[in-house]
Design brief:
two-stranded antiparallel ribbon; 4 helices; single chain
Length: 186
């Protein structure tokens, strides 16, 4: 079998082009710093790159969650500290007010201090971070405690205050009874 000149030239050109492509690939890898450009270059290396990118994105999400939780926890810690101090002060005022030696004017002064402490507790219960109340776990779109003035029927002067806790998703008894009346009338 004879090898012709044309065949030798074609083989030479094919090898020259392959060497040039390998050189270009090596220069590209060196300039970009990437060992693997395509999955077919190194399948196990490509799988490792995909795993590391996934882990990096998970770490980014965790970092974001931590940055969002940090102010929430700091405010909650400060609010709980303030709440403890406020309740401790209210306790000492209650003990002071239970004494039989106080005059009515002194008791009124203590009542004013207790009312101020109640407002402070309500303010602490209404603290928010990013529009969400800090003292409610699932229903954080409503305040944890609210002061409600209840008046006795027929008298405007007789009023009492009481704490109420919101019931998220449910309706009040009055609303339920009026809904029952409407459905019974059909």
């Amino acid at each position: 079998m004879r090898i012709s000149e044309v065949f030798s030239q074609r083989m030479y050109l094919r090898n020259l082009k392959k060497s040039q492509a390998d050189l270009d690939e090596a220069l590209l890898r060196m300039s970009t710093g990437q060992k693997v450009r395509y999955g077919s270059d190194d399948p196990s290396g490509a799988a490792e790159i995909i795993r590391l990118k996934d882990e990096s994105s998970k770490l980014g999400m965790r970092r974001n969650g931590i940055s969002q939780a940090r102010p929430w926890l700091q405010l909650t810690e400060q609010a709980v500290t303030d709440l403890g101090a406020t309740l401790s002060e209210a306790w000492s005022l209650a003990i002071k007010g239970s004494s039989d030696t106080l005059r009515p004017s002194d008791r009124l002064a203590l009542a004013g201090q207790v009312a101020a402490l109640r407002r402070q507790v309500e303010n602490l219960a209404g603290l928010r971070v990013a529009g969400r109340y800090i003292f409610l776990r699932h229903a954080d779109r409503h305040a944890a405690l609210t002061m409600r003035r209840a008046t006795t029927r027929g008298t405007r002067a007789a009023s009492t205050s009481r704490w109420t806790r919101p019931t998220c998703g449910s309706t009040s008894p009055a609303t339920r009874s009026s809904a029952r009346r409407r459905s019974a009338g059909r």
